[in-house]
Amino acid sequence: MQTISKTLMPQVFTSLALVALLTLSASAHANPQRVQLQANFLEADVDKNDQLNVAEFKTFINLNADHKLGRAVSIRRFGMYTQAFKAIDANGDGVVTKEEIAAQAKN
Ligand SMILES: [Ca+2]
Ligand SMILES: [Ca+2]
After folding, report:
1. Considering the domain boundaries, does residue 18 fall inside one?
2. pLDDT at position 104, please?
3. Structural domain includes residue 23
4. Low-confidence spans in the chain with pLDDT less than 50
5. What is the 60 CA–ligand 1 centroid distance (Å)?
6. In a domain, 19, yes or no
7. What is the H or E stretch that residue 97 is in?
8. Residues, CB within 5 angstroms of ligand 2 (ion)
């Protein structure tokens, strides 16, 4: 028994390390888009109030489309900025917040 557990341990460790590595690379793969999305938000938010009005939102979509993020490419191609804005502005107050964009990005 002693010898079996001793030989098995390194294998268990290796597979655990592999799982950790895979999980890490999976999240690292998802992160650059999120990072870019946040950078685009900051760049588009000209008055720095952490919210995008329609004009700022249009800049945001164009930046996202340049980076081929989400549905931004189609929104720009079809000029559907207003429709997209209304869809994301969940509470209808005329500005979109990071939270509203994040909620939309999950869909
Ligand atoms: Ca703003
Ligand atoms: Ca809103």
Report:
1. no
2. 81
3. no
4. 21-25
5. 11
6. no
7. strand 96-97
8. 89, 91, 93
What is the DSSP secondary-structure string of 19-81?
A: HHHHHHHHHHHHHHHHHHHHHHHHHH-TT-SSEE-HHHHHHHHHHHHHTT-TTHHHHHHHT-H
Convert the pLDDT of each residue in 45-75 to its tens digit: 999 999 999 999 999 999 999 999 989 999 9
Burial state string for 21-50 with b = 16 or more CB within 10 A and e = fewer than 16? eeeeeeeeeeeeeeebbeebbeebbeeeee
- Which domain range does residue 67 map to? 30-106
- Cα 2 to ligand 1 centroid, rounded to whole Å: 65
The CATH number that applies at residue 72 is 1.10.238.10
| Inside any domain, residue 71 | yes
The count of structural domains within the chain is 1
**pLDDT for the residue numbered 79:** 98
For residue 71, the CA-to-ligand 2 centroid distance in Å is: 19
pLDDT score at 15: 58
CA–CA separation, 28 vs 23, rounded Å? Answer: 9
